[in-house]
Amino acid sequence: MSCRNPEFQIAFVGKIKTGKSTLINSLLGHNYASMAVTPETAALTKFRSSQRDYVHVDFYTPQEWKRLWASISSTADVFKREYQELGAEAQKNKWIGHAPIHREMANEDIEKELSRCAKGRNGRKQRGAYPFCSQYGELYDR
Q1: Which residues contact 61 (CB under 8 A, 6 or more apart)?
Q2: CB 55 within 8 A of CB 111
Q3: Residues 132/59, Cβ–Cβ less than 8 Å
Q4: Looking at the predicted structure, is the pLDDT value of residue 6 above 90?
Q5: Pseudo-torsion of CA 56, 62, 65, 67, nearest 10°?
Q6: Using an 8 Å Cβ cutoff, are 112 and 106 in contact?
Q7: What is the phi/psi pair of residue 109, to 5°?
Q8: What is the DSSP string of 15-48?
């Protein structure tokens, strides 16, 4: 039996700031998963190999966002405070239900694009250039 195009998925799950992104970056050989002081990879992020290099971002639908928001526990005070401080509610309608973003780019530009996504357009502390995404990004790397 031969495996011409083997595909499998590995999930990294654990407490906040325990080195999951560091391990992923080590395995990939690039700093694709953000390792900032604040939690960065709470949304589903997929990395896979492809002939083309690109970043793909899917956003929450209004229904998905409503379910997600309703699931926030009463003990999520830190999240709620940060949400308010960042003015996230004002940005929400711009991104909820947004069409997917697909950007092909040179392999050497992927790490920089993902860093921009994590930090936001101006490098300030925020949820990133693509907040409210259901899939932070699929990174396709050769």
Answers
A1: 96, 97, 134
A2: no
A3: yes
A4: no
A5: -130
A6: no
A7: -95, -10
A8: STTSSHHHHHHHHHTS--S---SS----SEEEEE
